Amino acid sequence: MKTPAFDAHSVRDDFPALHQKVYGKPLVYLDNAATTQKPRIVIDRLTRYYEQENCNIHRGVHYLSQQATDAFEQTRGHVARNLNAQAAHEIIFTKGTTESVNLVSHSMGKLLMKPGSSILVTAMEHHSNMVPWQQLCRNYNGRLLVTRLTDTGEVDLNHFSELLQQRPVMAAFTHISNALGTVNPAKEMTRMAHEAGIPVLVDGAQAVAHMQVDVQELDCDFYVYSGHKVYAPMGVGVLYGKQRWLEQMEPWQFGGEMVDQVSFAETTFNELPFKFEAGTPNVGAVLGLGAALEFLNLQDIAQVHAYEHRLLDYAVGKLSEIPGIRFVGHPTQRSGLVSFLLGDSHPYDAGTLLDKMGIAVRTGHHCAQPVMDIYGIPGTVRASFALYNTFEEVDMLCDAVQKAAKMLL
Ligand code: C6P
């Protein structure tokens, strides 16, 4: 039987926040790389948890505590299956991508860094996947090695290969750039790093909503993402780590839940994954992430991704017809977003005009200041898409950009 085509219009009905007006105009929400709106199933899951199931987990024999613990651990299994991790205990719940990277940089740093050691990143990293590594290098009088970008805004793989020869102790790079939309060849880069004996962290913050990630296929050692960028609540993130690393790494925060035996003389630590989850987690948000994965499971995900590609191609094609527009980044493999400027005007000016027309885009450096420095610009206007955006919305974006261009140029 032929699968019916993915219908963004009907999916929109599940997202209450999309059906509002701003300044009397229908909201066109194109800031999905910052955070996605939430489907009813996720909102309802949070409500149900707080109305009926609210309880701390792993701590009580009573009914509610067991219910909440079961639901929490089921979600861990769900996240593991979604990423094709080998085991559920390879999934650590964190606050978000930022906390996941900090955890890995702290604990892998303790394991691998020696005075003078270096870490390899790329020039397109979000601050969250750069500053933690930079600070780690500083602490060890080491060096942050930064892979150059090509003119099109892609990672220069020859330079990446050259820098690997300098034997960094880790490589960390983004799967998709939040500033340029570039999809990096994460599998190939991981293979290159592994050939040089170097473990890899992939920042999947912008990827998980737009592609089916398989950590075993990528073979990366760590993969991190934030729930709120995949239709889940804020306050929950994921760290996938290969068991052999997680076992060797020291905990990074200490407190309840992550311990086994505690006395004033000595403390022993809990097993995986709990040794990395100190204190009470954001149970509601984790259950919300489970609901978001359920929501995605209800879609034909291949169709969703194909639809998102068509939508993005349409947006890039139509925007390129607007006189005075300058794209920032021309990657061959692009996903989720497009960054641009209107002539030499400041991105905030265009962003403010678009806002008044009901179009929500992000303007600024997108927490990727080094990328902006490379291009010698203060920031960009960024339109980023989700499965509920429509071709009509792209038309509205383009009309609004055209009007803004007429006013600014
Ligand atoms: N980028 C954006 O508008 P947190 O804040 O921890 O959920 O995610 C951090 C992060 C890490 N890596 C990448 C590639 C990201 O895009 C982000 C978040 C948002 O582009 C907020 S700056």
Structural description of this entry:
There is one protein chain. The chain has 409 residues and is α/β, with parallel strands linked by helices. It is 40% helix and 16% strand. It has 14 helices and 17 strands. The protein has helices spanning 8-12, 40-53, 63-83, 97-112, 131-139, 157-164, 186-195, 215-218, 243-248, 283-297, 301-319, 347-356, 369-375, 391-408, and strands spanning 21-22, 25-26, 28-29, 91-94, 118-122, 143-147, 170-174, 200-203, 222-226, 237-241, 259-262, 267-269, 325-327, 337-342, 359-360, 362-364, 380-384. It has a seven-stranded mixed β-sheet, sandwiched between helices. A four-stranded antiparallel β-sheet has the order 13-14-17-16, with helices on one face. The longest helix has 21 residues, at 63-83. It is globular and about 70 Å long. 46% of the residues are buried. The model has no long low-confidence stretch (mean pLDDT 97). It binds ligand C6P. The site of ligand C6P has 17 residues, from α4.
Task: Write a compact overview of the structure shown.
With 409 residues, the protein is an alpha/beta fold. The protein is 40% helix and 16% strand.
Give the tags.
single chain, 409 residues, alpha/beta, Aspartate Aminotransferase, domain 2, 2 domains, 7-stranded mixed beta sheet, 17 strands, globular, binds ligand C6P
**Number of distinct beta strands:** 17
Strand line-up across the major sheet: 4-10-9-8-7-5-6
- The proportion of residues in beta strands is 15-25%
Based on Cα principal axes, name the global outline: globular
Percentage of residues assigned to helices:
25-40%
Structural class: alpha/beta
Query: Ions, cofactors, ligands: which are bound?
Result: ligand C6P
* Number of helices, counting only DSSP H or I runs of 4 residues or more: 14
CATH architecture of the largest domain: 3-Layer(aba) Sandwich
Major sheet attributes: 7 strands, mixed
Tell me the CATH superfamily of the largest domain.
Type I PLP-dependent aspartate aminotransferase-like (Major domain)
CATH class of the largest domain: Alpha Beta
Q: What's the structural domain tally? A: 2
